[in-house]
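U., I forgot to send this yesterday:
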Amino acid sequence: MSGHGPSPLSPGRGPAEFIAPWDWSKLDGGFEGRKFDLDRWNAAYFERLRKFLKAAEQRGVIVELVLFSRMYTEERWRVSPLHPDNNEEGAAWRTFAPRDF
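Result:
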């Protein structure tokens, strides 16, 4: 199982279906073999979010939207788009440890 596992960002489909708020860069590297560009939003992420929120609204479900969650384990931090190895802006994020994030 990938570090992403089943989650709202990859609902039961694994890393190939993982969608982050940031778009992929053209740089190789990072946990999944590519790096994120933290200066560009990923339209697919926000489209999936809008569809999810609309479906919840139609069913009368209240959604709690958490924009940033604590990285509870080293593994979760290692696969995060914000981890310095996973984005092209990496140097600026080098001081963050999972417990500090």
